[in-house]
Amino acid sequence: MNILKNLAYWLGLPIILILIWHFATMGDISPFVPRPLPLWEKFVSVWLGENLLTDVLPSIGRLLLALAISIVLGVVLGVLIGSFRSARWFFEPLFEFLRAIPSTIMIPVLLLVVGLNDNMRITVIVLGSIWPVLLNTITGVRSLDEVLSNSAKVYGVHGWGRVWHLVLPGASPAIMAGVRQSLAVGLILMVVSEMFASANGIGTLITNFQNRVAVPEMWSGVLLLGVVGVVLSAIFALVQKGVLKWYDGLKAAADGN
């Protein structure tokens, strides 16, 4: 029953907005404003046919690989740097410098260095997506519970055991917050990297539609990006629920007290 109730809450607002959109676009309107039903038909014909294999899946594959690299690198570097104060002082100026550089501005440089291939597009996504994970991991490691840290020392928990049983679980709420931010950044950079230089992909196809003034097809690409974002968010919520089960239980117990 709770599942149906949550589903109703989750779908309620989108259904209301679609109904408002439907009634607002009845009658004579600008040809550049899409109607819900024709847009859905265009979405099915454009993105769920041949383009699913040639453009959609390659884009999603590059995005997922880049996000996996960003998360692994961000967590590993974040744990190492967050565990040592001297490392934080050493790397902080470099991080501030690199973080100020938009990863999209690196596309021309990467085109020359890496070449026009998937490696360049994945590198662009990683350069932008790694920062939320890295900085949140450093913050999470720095804010570990001092009592738990001292208890680990007393019981002789050091090295990898300390990282696995104390640092990663303690920093996991901050890490997951960083991963959530990197999902949105990665999706944006996936489209931008394909718009600049790519032979296939969602961004390339949307740009082609724009150049041909194929307005309904272009709107269907916007709809696809929204659907991809919602699916990624839903998968992330399931993963987060499993990873932070202990944290949610702790908060529930604290609220109960």
UniProtKB/TrEMBL annotation:
Membrane-spanning parts: 7-24, 63-84, 96-116, 122-141, 183-206, 218-239
Localization per Swiss-Prot or TrEMBL: Cell membrane
Entry membrane topology: Multi-pass membrane protein
Gene3D superfamilies with a match to the protein in the record: MetI-like (1.10.3720.10)
InterPro entries the record matches: MetI-like, MetI-like_sf
Keyword entries, A-Z: Cell membrane, Membrane, Transmembrane, Transmembrane helix, Transport
Residue ranges occupied by any ABC transmembrane type-1 domain in the UniProt entry: 56-240
Sequence similarity: Belongs to the binding-protein-dependent transport system permease family.
Protein name: Nitrate ABC transporter permease
Taxonomic placement: Bacteria, Bacillati, Actinomycetota, Actinomycetes, Micrococcales
Gene that encodes it: ssuC_1
